[in-house]
Amino acid sequence: MCRFLETIKYHDGQFFRQSYHNKRFNRTRKKIFELDKIDLFDHIQVPEALEDTNDVYKVRVEYDKEIQRVEFLPYVLKDIKSLRVVKDNNIDYQFKYMERSPLNTLFDKREDCDDVLIVKNGLLSDTSYCNIALFDGSMWFTPSAPLLKGVQRSYLLEFGLIHEDEIQLRDLKFFKKIRLFNSMIEWTDCMDIKRAMIK
């Protein structure tokens, strides 16, 4: 049976983007297993030792029909400064699967870069772990066809901080930089990569 993940930021006594994680979690359960909604956070117990911590933790929830495992892992932000463009027209990661071998195969093609920028059917999608937004000098745009619709992406779209658009690989030249983000990285803490560092 397939297993899926929710990766949730826990910091200063709170879980971030709870409603967004609940929505994705229940959408997956409904689509894959035809299960009714539950509140994911009723099933996550914060370890007593972490209740007063100011450190950032990644809460990793593994589930199929039932929640199988919950881990609180110290989070360290990766330093990504360069991206290698890789193409794969068949990759499918519309749900947050535990099985990541297709993404790992693409990541292994990064050569001297820190991560990969995945292109599917000529369109920009994501990196191996992050959604992306591109800055044209005045506005931020995110691909309308990401591999995974991340919770941070949903939040940023709802509040108008980024805007969806179909972005082809050849459109890269119109943007000044690219920003990487996911559920663990706040918009103001995101990593920006200059266009010249996309190879």
Q: Any overview of this molecule?
A:
It is a single chain. This protein is of the alpha+beta class and 199 residues long. Helices cover 16% and strands 30% of the residues. The chain is built from three helices and twelve strands, in the order E-E-H-E-E-E-H-E-E-E-E-H-E-E-E. The protein has helices at residues 18-33, 101-107, 151-158; strands at 4-11, 14-15, 56-63, 67-74, 83-87, 115-120, 123-124, 131-135, 140-143, 163-165, 177-181, 191-194. The mean pLDDT is 95.
Summarize this entry quickly.
By secondary structure, the chain is of the alpha+beta class. Helix content is 16%, strand content 30%.
Top keywords for this entry?
199 residues; alpha+beta; 5-stranded mixed beta sheet; 4-stranded antiparallel beta sheet; 12 strands
* Average predicted local confidence, pLDDT: 95
Unreliable spans: none
- The counted number of beta strands is 12
Largest sheet: 5 strands, mixed
Radius of gyration computed on alpha carbons? 17 Å
Number of helices: 3
Strand neighbour order, sheet with most strands = 10-9-8-11-12
What is the CA–CA distance across the termini? 38 Å
Give the assembly state of these chains. single chain
Strand portion: 25-35%
Class of secondary structure makeup? alpha+beta
Order of helices and strands: EEHEEEHEEEEHEEE
Q: Which word captures the global form?
A: globular
Helical fraction equals 10-25%
